[in-house]
TrEMBL record:
It holds the Pfam family Lactamase_B. This is MBL fold metallo-hydrolase. InterPro entries: Metallo-B-lactamas, NDM-1-like, RibonucZ/Hydroxyglut_hydro, ST1585_MBL-fold. The lineage of its organism: Bacteria, Bacillati, Actinomycetota, Actinomycetes, Streptosporangiales. It comes from Planotetraspora silvatica. It comes from the Bacteria. Residues 24-223 form the Metallo-beta-lactamase domain. SUPFAM superfamilies: Metallo-hydrolase/oxidoreductase.
Length: 308
């Protein structure tokens, strides 16, 4: 299938075709002894993911585990649907996100407030998952991939309080979710992901530091794809966060409201990203991946909360 890319080590990148776009959200299939799907994508992407798994020989009774890095709808909105397609699969999530997968009502209401009429188009509806099938991870945990291979889970908040990074013992791949930001492979751009309500700069920087200390061989971004140059990429992740926070602080000090702060930060960061100098479609996709409104809003919320 044209939305499946082999990455080596029995790992396959799946373009979940979020909202019909290519290159927005990736899921990853680890096709070992106990097949494991990392990230489901949105609810509306679930049939796309199912077809991709079928093309790789994974049928309804073959998938052992579904793991999500966190419960935001672009990563976990399809969990309920995927759980229905694969009745034998265990669903693994950090303990701070588990209850929302079992009862998504609050999560969906919150998403509706943020996204309004765009919610259905972008994400669809997260269906509930039987609580008995959900395994809640503590700050560290393990997912058995079979034949001695495992994913180790590492609590990595800052982007979201229910976020984990996942390290593959065989390949050294680290699934970074959104904790290292958003990567655009066509241009090599990296931009932060600092949405409300959980963003916290110091916590986010500690998570990036933790990722470096784990010594991964490769970073697998949910948005989007594999990156081999690990130290430089993590350094850039931290730098991007600091730049956006410093500029948002300036805007706040000048008494700008959110809309004017977003405009200022967008303007002053524009030169950092090749994607914004290229065609309109690439620029629009980059903004959907890492929206200035969401990023600045999250930083403002953190500044207000922390009294910084």
């Amino acid at each position: 299938m044209d939305n499946v890319t082999p990455l080596g080590g029995d790992v396959y990148e799946i373009d979940t075709r979020m909202a019909g776009y290519s290159g927005i959200t990736a899921g990853y299939l680890i096709l070992g002894d106990r097949p494991c799907l990392v990230e489901t994508g949105t609810s509306t992407s679930a049939p796309v993911v199912r077809d991709a798994l079928a093309s790789l020989g994974v049928g309804p009774d073959d998938l052992a585990t579904v793991v999500v890095t966190h419960i935001h709808l672009d990563h976990a909105g399809g969990v309920g649907d995927i759980a229905g397609f694969y009745p034998s699969a265990e669903i693994v999530v950090h303990e701070k996100g588990a209850r929302h997968l079992a009862d998504p009502a609050r999560l969906m209401a919150s998403a509706k407030m943020v996204w309004g009429d765009k919610l259905d188009t972008l994400f669809g509806t997260l269906a509930p998952t039987d609580a008995a099938r959900i395994r809640a991870l503590g700050d560290v945990g393990t997912v058995d991939l079979g034949n001695g291979r495992a994913l180790s889970s590492h609590y990595s908040p800052g982007h979201a309080k229910h976020h984990v990074g996942l390290l593959d013992s065989l390949t050294g791949d680290l699934y970074v979710g959104d904790a290292a930001g958003v990567y655009l492979p066509e241009t090599g751009d990296l931009r932060p992901a600092s949405p409300p309500p959980d963003f916290d700069l110091e916590v986010a920087l500690r998570s990036i530091e933790l990722f470096g200390a784990l010594g991964p061989q490769r970073l697998l971004f949910s948005h989007y794809g594999p990156v081999d140059d690990v130290p430089a990429t993590l350094e850039r992740s931290a730098e991007e966060l600091r730049v956006w926070v410093d500029l948002t602080k300036q805007a706040r000090a000048e008494g700008l409201d959110l809309d004017h702060a977003v405009a200022m930060v967008r303007d002053r960061t524009r030169e950092r990203y090749a994607a914004l100098q290229t065609d309109t479609a690439t620029a629009e996709r980059f903004e959907l991946l890492s929206g200035a409104q969401s990023n600045v809003g999250g930083i403002m919320h953190w500044l207000d909360r922390s009294g910084t």
